[in-house]
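Before the break, one more example. Copy the sequence into your notebook; we will annotate it together after we see the structure.
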Amino acid sequence: MQWQPKGVVGVISPWNFPVNLTFAPLAGVFAAGNRAMIKPSEYTPATSDLLKAMFAKAFNEEEVAVFVGGPEVGQAFSGLAFDHLVFTGATSVAKHVMRAAAENLVPVTLELGGKSPVILSRGADMATAAARIMNGKTLNAGQICLAPDYVLAPQEDVENFVKEAQAAVSRYFPTIKDNPDYTAVVAQRHYDRVKGYVDDARAKGARVVEINPAGEDLSQQEHRKIVPTLIIDPTDDMTVMQEEIFGPVLPVKSYKTIDEAVAYVNAHDRPLALYWFGTDEAEKDRVLERTTSGGVTVNDVIFHVAQEDLPFGGVGPAGMGAYHGHDGFREFSHRKAVFQQLKKDIAPMLGLRPPYGEGIRKYLAGQIKK
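Here is what the structure looks like once it is written out:
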């Protein structure tokens, strides 16, 4: 077998981590010996322009070419006849990208998202779990494909989780409005979308807990910041339980038995990640065996993506293909099968060719399993 570069790989990178999610797949693309064409996000124009300038200084355009622009550029880019195409972004956009790639039968790696659940086991250290979950949920204001999207907590532990989540956020962010450690939602459209999820949940009867340690008024602000918000006991008719949130809003559902929690996860699209907190090893194994997700972090959130010796990728609506480390080399390589025959024909080989006779009968008899 020979490992060969696929050729030219297209990379469409997103706005939430415009540097990391350009260079992470590019490492595997280069490691496998390919060339690359990159389309960064129009939502981060300064970063995209900087990437274009930096690549131009370090590489010949025949090695790496960067194309900036809006949706029309992205649409044209995804329709090119690449040897492989990598897209990181929303599932809704991925359908258009994959459809365009299919016109040229271009293989794709899709890194998407979805509603990644957190299952809190009975006996979990609630203070530690809540602190780690809220750290993951407030990182980049929840604008991470791997951000925990909802929590499944034992019925009797919901209020304790709420209390510990409030305490953790208060330690992390004593203030919100002008705190440089707490970022904004990227654009007005996304701000309105996330606020709409909260308004819809409140209107449909959910209890909404806004964690605002300093009691600041964020109604008049320039940054589009949303305070960390818990939605307690949401129902499935609420949009917050139907769409990937991609913001600092965290629904908290209760369960009576772990089988009920697993059944809820399995009744929905397979997520990019699943998170389990607890000490019961048998329960952990049962949850991991009975659920399917792109990846798992146990007793924390998000961290599996940082392990370069583990493949990173989604499954189903959360994506397809995987990269990082050696898996990136494999993803962007063509494994060419090579068989080398003997130069000289020998008697058994001759017996396998027409006109057929005793030689082929003996060979076939030897292959039949009795």
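The longest strand covers residues 249-255. The chain has two domains: 2-112+317-335, 117-313. Try to locate both features in your own notes.
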